[in-house]
Amino acid sequence: MNALPRAAELGLIGCHVCGLVCRDAHAAAGAAQVVACPRCGVALHRRKPASYSRTWALLIAAFIMYIPANVVPIMRTASLNDVDDNTIISGVVELWKNGSPDLAIIVFAASIVVPMLKFLALGTLLVSSRRGSNWARQQRAGLYRLVELVGYWSMLDVFVVSLLTALVRFSVLSRVEPLPGVIYFGLTVVLTMLASMSFDPRLIWDGRDTDD
Amino acid sequence: MGTTSEALIVCEHCDTVHQRLALSRGEVARCARCGKVLQRHYRLSTNAMLALIVTALIVFVQANMWPIVMLGLSGQHNSATLWGVIIAMWREDAGIVSVLVAATLFFLPLLKMLQLGWLLWFARQGRRAPGFVPMMVGLHYLNPWTMSEVFVLGALVAIVKAHAYFDVTPEPGIYAYAALTVLITVFAGIDVRQLWRTPGVAA
């Protein structure tokens, strides 16, 4: 036997909600049967169900939303003599010029780098795991942990636009309004979060060579 | 072993089976295959965690009631609370964003703190709270959707952006939010799952 036995090889399942280690009763109950965790009552699965197709579907949906999120302006600043529409990237540029370059870098990371990282990382993980590749497994596992850790910080720009909308309400003198881009961007963030949740990182290690 | 085992841990990220260890102060157990954290040693007692949650709830109420920032332009002044933000987005035809903000910054964090407080209040007396199982399952699912710490950074960015055109005055709400972020960071490290195994609480 392998020095690092895996639960599936030993006929065990770790409950994904409460963590309890259970004997896999699927074989005895029949494969189609739902077997519930004796402690928390949630259905036990050896792997997250339909992980590849769900993750692909959510990731593609997120990418479709991501295009208008970047092209369509997210915010309109209207004052007496001028109307200015900002996209995500022009907002970063403006912050760099007028405010603080440090914060501009943070916003750039949260709004541009993190979503791109999620598309590339999850795409890479899906393709390499499907092929049963044993390339850089440790690093791919680390990549998944990174995606899970930083994913929700992309909501930053959505909160900035919301707060400015509520604050900048000086009738004709100056107003900020949200534009549809911010809705697409919010949906992108939610969909990428759902995509990374539906990916099962155990698939990274399920390839042909399980020994390392 | 019977049908379940408390002596084993299965790594959630790679399915490797490990023996549960007795950790001492400051120790962290990582998976030998993929490096995911399996166990941490918790310094906080049930009492300390409950105190932390109650503090966080009080600060949360303040963060939501007090205005966050005030802007001034030619003698006019405007300030906003979190609910002001939610209502403003709703009126500006960004209903989806309004719902997202309300869920991730108000309803889900509130629900999380109330549930944790309830569970810990009973755990402190060595009892299992009514509704223990559905609440523990619920906490697992709502955990990734609370975003107060992102909002604090967002408020900072909004202040810097507005500073170029307006007089910006931070209001008490922003400090309450900053304090809330510190508290959230402290209890983000707590794995609620340990309650499943707390003596008297575990079935």
UniProtKB/TrEMBL annotation, chain A:
Cellular compartments annotated: Cell inner membrane
Protein name per the record: Putative paraquat-inducible protein A
Segments crossing the lipid bilayer: 56-75, 103-128, 149-170, 182-199
Alphabetically ordered keywords of this record: Cell inner membrane, Cell membrane, Membrane, Transmembrane, Transmembrane helix
Gene Ontology cellular-component terms listed: plasma membrane
Main location (coarse class): membrane
Pfam families in UniProt: PqiA (PF04403)
Lineage: Bacteria, Pseudomonadati, Pseudomonadota, Gammaproteobacteria, Lysobacterales
Domain of life: Bacteria
Species whose genome carries this gene: Rhodanobacter fulvus Jip2
Keyword Cell membrane belongs to the record: yes
TrEMBL record, chain B:
The keyword Metal-binding belongs to this UniProt entry's keyword annotation: no
Ranges annotated as spanning the membrane: 48-74, 94-121, 142-162, 174-192
One Pfam family matching this protein: PqiA
Keywords per UniProt: Membrane, Transmembrane, Transmembrane helix
InterPro entries linked: PqiA-like
Keyword hit for Glycoprotein: no
Domain of life per record: Bacteria
Protein name, UniProt field: Putative paraquat-inducible protein A
Origin species: Rhodanobacter fulvus Jip2
Biological classification of the source: Bacteria, Pseudomonadati, Pseudomonadota, Gammaproteobacteria, Lysobacterales
